[in-house]
Specification:
It contains no helices and 11 strands. The mean pLDDT is about 95.
Length: about 120
């Protein structure tokens, strides 16, 4: 069982930036993909971005142009750089690993979740 530990959340003003980190207890290139999800107040958990084993990236429309997903294989750590944040980005952000693919939606099938890190954007 992989352990995923997120960090980097906090309170930021609208227009600000944050970088989230996700440290994995296993080699991150052993996963089909890794992903960031978020769950806002009263909302369902949603996919934010993912990065494949080969390094390809994909973003939900909400983060395109503002968020950048990346990874450091040597540190077994994934990142989410977020900029131009708005109050609508307020959520708990979760790191996840993929055990395969949902070929219907071309999104990761999640194997493991981190505990989440709170991001709060004030107006």
């Amino acid at each position: 069982q992989v352990q995923l530990v997120e960090s980097g959340g906090g309170l930021v003003q609208a227009g600000g930036s944050l970088r989230l980190s996700c440290a994995s207890s296993r080699t991150i290139t052993s996963f089909a993909a890794m992903a960031w999800y978020r769950q806002g107040p009263g909302k369902q958990r949603e996919l934010v971005a993912f990065i494949t084993h080969g390094g390809s990236t994909n973003y939900a429309d909400s983060g395109k142009g503002r968020f950048t997903i990346s990874r450091d294989n040597a540190k077994n750590t994934m990142y989410l750089q977020m900029s131009s944040l708005t109050p609508e980005d307020t959520a708990v952000y979760y790191c996840a690993t993929s055990k395969g693919w949902d070929w219907g939606t071309i999104t990761p099938l999640i194997g493991s979740w981190g505990q989440g890190t709170q991001v709060t954007v004030s107006s």
